[in-house]
Amino acid sequence: MFSEASNVSAGVDKVFAFIIIISLIFLIGISVFIVYTLVRFRRKKGLKAMQFTDNIKLEIIWTVIPIILVLLMFYYGWIAFAPMRKAPPDAMQVKVIGKMWEWIFDYGNGMTSKELVIPLNKAVRLDLVSEDVNHGFFIPAFRVKEDVVPGYNNYMWFIPQYIGNYEILCTQYCGLLHSNMMSKVRVVDQEEYEKWYADLEKASKIPEAEGLIVLRNTGCLACHSIDGSKLVGPTFKDFYGSERTVIANNTETKVIADDAFISRSVYSPDAEIAAGYNKGLMKSYTDVLKEEDLKKINDYLKTLHE
Q1: What are residue 145's DSSP bridge partners?
Q2: Reduced to 3 states, what is the DSSP secondary structure of residue 154?
Q3: How crowded is residue 124: how many other Cβ atoms within 10 Å of its Cβ?
Q4: CB count, 10 Å around CB of 215?
Q5: Which of 24, 59, 166, 210 can bridge 141 by disulfide, Cβ–Cβ 3.0-4.6 Å?
Q6: What does the buried/exposed string (b/e) look like for 149-176 if buried means 16 or more CB atoms within 10 Å of the residue's CB?
Q7: Is 167 helix (H, G, I), strand (E, B) or coil?
Q8: Which positions ≥6 away from 19 have C-beta within 8 Å?
Q9: Can you tell me the mean pLDDT for 143-164?
Q10: How far apart (Å, rounded) are the C-alpha atoms in residues 137 and 176?
Q11: DSSP secondary structure letter of residue 86
C-alpha cells in the first residue's frame, strides 16, 4: 500500500531498489574477490614474489563499467524526479509554513490548520515557506521531501492515492525541539473533505482571543503548549490559578500561578524556575511584552481549563 500512497512513491521506490541492487552486486563481488585473493595469493614457502605491471584492459573495464552504472542511476533518478517538479496547473494549493517547532497549513482567506487535510486522488501543490530557520518537509509514505528555507520559495506536489493518516516530519535539525516537529496528512474522500473545509471556513470567521494572538506573535507557543502536551516549558492548559512548585534561591517552594507570578515569570524568568525544568532556557520579555499585552495573555490563560 505505502509503495503507492502517492503518484510518485512507486517511481522513487524503483530508483532506490535499482541503486540498492547495484550496491549489493558490488558489495558481494568485491567481498568474494578479496577472499579469493587472500586464499589464492597467500604467502607460501618457496614461492617467489612477482612484480605486476599495468593492465590497460583491466583499467578500461573498471573505469567504463562504473561510469555506465552511475549514468544509469542518474537516468532513472531523473525520470523519477522530473515529474515531481511539474505541478499540474489545476492542482489544489496549500501554503505550508514551517517555524520552530510546528507546521501550519494555510488554505487561504485566513483559514489555517495544524494538520494537512486533502481529498483523495486530487493533485495537491504545497508552497513551502519558513518563518525562522531551515526546515525539511518530509512525508515518508508519499516519498516526497523538500527543503524549507527562509527567503526561498520552494514547493512540492503529489496525488494521494489511499485514504488514511500519514506522518509529516522535519528533516533539518532546527533547534531544541526538532524531533517534536511533526504533523500528519489526512487523506479523505471528497465529501468528507468538503465538510471539513466548510467547518474550517466557519472557524476562521470567529475572532481569535487577543491573548492567543499575543502568545503566537511573540513565539511563546514554541515552548508552551495550550493542549497539555509537554514542550520546553510548562503547558498553559490548566495553568492559571494552579499551585506550582518552583525553585527560588535554591529552595523549593509553592506558589499560585496568578497575575503576579506570571508577570515575574515573564520579566525575570530565572528568579523562579518551575520544578523539572532547566534554568536559562527562557529570556526576559521586558522589551517585548507590555503590561497591556500581559493582561491579554492572563485573560486568555483563564479560559484554558477543562
Answers
A1: 138
A2: strand
A3: 22
A4: 22
A5: 166
A6: beeeeebbbbbbbeeeebebbbbbebee
A7: strand
A8: 73
A9: 94
A10: 17
A11: -
Element (H, E) at 16: helix 9-40
What's the 3-state SS for 103-137? EEEEEECCEEECCEEEECCCCEEEEEEECCCCEEE
Domain boundaries, the chain: 6-43+51-85, 92-204, 210-301
- Fold of domain 210-301: Cytochrome Bc1 Complex; Chain D, domain 2 (1.10.760)
Locate 184 and state its grid cell: 500528519
Cα(77)–Cα(246) distance, rounded to whole angstroms?
A: 56
Length of the chain: 306
Beta strands 116-119 and 183-188: pairing type? parallel
Query: Left if phi > 0, otherwise alpha if psi is -120 to 50, otherwise beta: which for 247?
Result: beta
Three cell numbers at 66? 562504473
Q: In the sheet where 243-248 sits, what is the strand order? A: 251-256, 243-248, 273-274
> Residue 99 burial (CB < 10 Å; 0-12/13-18/19+)?
buried
Band of residue 3 on the pLDDT scale cut at 50, 70, 90: low
Instruction: Give the integer Cα–Cα distance in Å for 215 and 304.
Output: 13
**What integer pLDDT is reported at residue 206 of this predicted model?**
67
Tell me which fold the domain 92-204 belongs to: Immunoglobulin-like (2.60.40)
- Indicate the pTM of the whole model: 0.73
List, for residues 16-73, the tens digit of each pLDDT value. 999 999 999 999 999 999 999 888 877 777 777 777 778 888 899 989 998 999 999 9
